[in-house]
Amino acid sequence: MAARITTQQKILNAAEALFARDGFEQTSLRQITHEAGVNLASVNYHFGSKKALIQAVIARYLSVFMPALEEQLNEAEAQKDLKTQALFERFKLPLAKLTQINKRGPDTFLRLLGFAYSEIQGHLRKYTQQEYGNVLQHLLQLLKRTNPHLDEQQMFWRLHFVLGSVVFAQVSGQALIEIAQAEFNQQIGAQDVIDQLIPFVSGGLENS
Amino acid sequence: MAARITTQQKILNAAEALFARDGFEQTSLRQITHEAGVNLASVNYHFGSKKALIQAVIARYLSVFMPALEEQLNEAEAQKDLKTQALFERFKLPLAKLTQINKRGPDTFLRLLGFAYSEIQGHLRKYTQQEYGNVLQHLLQLLKRTNPHLDEQQMFWRLHFVLGSVVFAQVSGQALIEIAQAEFNQQIGAQDVIDQLIPFVSGGLENS
DNA sequence: AATTAAATTAAACGCATGTTTAAATCATGC
DNA sequence: GCATGATTTAAACATGCGTTTAATTTAATT
């Protein structure tokens, strides 16, 4: 059991690609298993259910992303004169690290996140909160530091608006990228979208 | 054919409520027809297909909202010293007008819009562009006026981020409102969310 | 090599969906 | 009041889904 790709991995790889492209509900197990070249029943054999497969796909990314983000937040913590935008820039490295899972890992992860938030409402939120709640708390604390003029309620809403922008940018991302490319005659990648996004969410969050 | 509610209207009313609550794909024709107290087959008889029903539901709102928005934009056009935030505030009145369709019309419309954008990817965008493209062009032109420091590409992306925030706020809105109410011990409505949203999108769009 | 456990396979199950059919009912104009 | 067209109805259709079953094949252990 060394370099050969197991059935489990084949399923995970095919599933994450299709989930990221079409969403969870729009992707059937028959599509996934066909793409992976494995039997339909093997999903339920190895993962138990489709829901569990979705969770496994997301968990694989979170397990890389979250620790890297935590490290970045610790560095930000020590930083003097921390600015909101600089804080958001800290997301770029953890995101880039996801290439170790997949060449298009960063794109994939953000799109998965987008679908997860818009499709399975409370489920992922609860899981993330439970597994990585401390990291998110840390982020909130730092944002309060860079934005002492916002009260609890403003911060609550704006954080969710930020999340909404990110999620939307990714879910509608591919379509928008294609429109943008046609309109501006240049190659555009997910990284460019992030670079456009950061000043937007920074400005939105900070605004008095 | 005077004051009595026709089958078509019964279907539209039931459909828009369920669509707004659960999304288009999550709502079955059987749910809709049961709620409306009409026969299952009457949807296909009166509208042709589920897709056409969705379009009819959205079109009913757009036909009220868009002309009202156009009027607001014309007023803004004449305004001296137009600010981005003031421009976004112009959305409130057209939105409020939707109560003439339904008491909870504004909420319903925004949630429908949210689901429309996240579920049926290109379809609605094309329809809106075709039917009300001139209004949206007008909005874009005014935004360029209030933000001359942004180039075409920045404006393109930020406009879509704004849209994303709005859409997300509404789709995740009810869940978030409940969390917020529990956390801050006060009654919160869709209008409050809009009030929180406007400074966010204004700040995000303007940021240099 | 024989035994046992793990993994894979083809097939079927049960269910829910949107849509279509064809008969029954209703309303309308002559 | 009857005939005609519009509407409503109950039932079935076709399809796709996640899941389960039971038999077969593969791999590991003794």
Automatic annotation (TrEMBL), chains A, B:
Annotated Gene3D superfamilies: Tetracycline Repressor, domain 2 (1.10.357.10)
Keywords: DNA-binding
InterPro entries: DNA-bd_HTH_TetR-type_CS (IPR023772), Homeodomain-like_sf (IPR009057), HTH-type_TetR-like_transc_reg (IPR050109), HTH_TetR (IPR001647), PsrA_TetR_C (IPR041586), Tet_transcr_reg_TetR-rel_C_sf (IPR036271)
Source organism superkingdom: Bacteria
The species this protein was found in: Idiomarina zobellii
Regions recorded as binding DNA: 28-47
Molecular function GO labels: DNA-binding transcription factor activity; transcription cis-regulatory region binding
Protein name from the UniProt record: TetR family transcriptional regulator
PANTHER family, alphabetized: HTH-TYPE TRANSCRIPTIONAL REGULATOR RUTR (PTHR30055), TRANSCRIPTIONAL REGULATORY PROTEIN (PTHR30055:SF235)
Pfam families, alphabetized: TetR_C_30, TetR_N
